[in-house]
TrEMBL record:
One of its GO terms (molecular function) is magnesium ion binding. Belongs to the purine/pyrimidine phosphoribosyltransferase family. PyrE subfamily. Keywords: Glycosyltransferase, Magnesium, Pyrimidine biosynthesis, Transferase. Its EC number is 2.4.2.10. This is Orotate phosphoribosyltransferase. InterPro entries: OPRT, Orotate_PRibTrfase_bac, PRTase-like, PRTase_dom. The lineage of its organism: Bacteria, Candidatus Coatesiibacteriota. CDD domains: PRTases_typeI (cd06223). It comes from Candidatus Coatesbacteria bacterium RBG_13_66_14.
């Protein structure tokens, strides 16, 4: 389809490769800031369209009725994915630390809900949104994200996950970092808010 999400992630500075000191203090060989990709409306729209295509390809009987995303990171891609699927796009947000539906958003028991995120790392925020969906009495029918960077030790997801890009990102404690051992200079990329 002539679509190369990795190229777009790199060219927008959303995917950096090198030697990074993360906000957690861990070192890594790659750094992802999806907002730098999604800040371009034409790229965000395309990403939403491609995710919608992959979702329907993975399950032609999906027939979603609503997309839900975690604020803030999932907002833009959730909205674009909802646009491409022709369904509502709502978002969950934290209230006193707990992911919840606010602003009058609601899910019906017969809704077919797709959870959409920008980046899935541990699956933690995905799990929190799935809990929001289940609290409404519904089981999500699919999960989608722009970048799937789960490690081998990530927990099993509650539904099939489709992604535009699957990235292996290695993370080390500073004392175990092979890039430090080789003397490669490390950089601290723009602060990433904890998720
Ligand atoms: Zn290092």
């Amino acid at each position: 389809m002539g679509y190369d999400p990795l190229h777009d992630l790199r060219s927008t500075g959303a995917l950096l490769e090198g030697h990074f000191i993360l906000s957690s203090g861990l070192h890594s060989n790659r750094y992802v800031q999806c907002a730098l990709y999604l800040q371009h409306p034409e790229l965000a729209e395309r990403a939403g369209r491609e995710l919608a295509y992959l979702l329907k390809e993975a399950d032609p009987a999906l027939e979603p009725t609503v997309v839900i995303s975690p604020a803030l990171g999932g907002l833009i891609i959730g909205h674009e994915c909802g646009r491409a699927l022709g369904v509502r796009a709502v978002f969950a947000e934290r209230a006193e630390g707990v992911m919840t539906l606010r602003r009058g958003f609601s899910l019906a028991r017969d809704d077919r809900v797709v959870v959409v995120e920008d980046v899935v790392t541990t699956g933690k925020s995905t799990g929190e949104v799935v809990d929001v969906v289940r609290a409404a009495g519904v089981e999500p029918v699919a999960l989608a994200c722009v970048v799937d960077r789960r490690g081998a030790d990530a927990p099993t997801m509650p539904a099939a996950l489709v992604s535009l890009a699957r990235l292996d990102i290695e993370v080390w404690k500073p004392e175990a970092c092979p890039l430090c051992a080789k003397g490669v200079p490390a950089e601290k990329p723009g602060s990433r808010a904890p998720r």
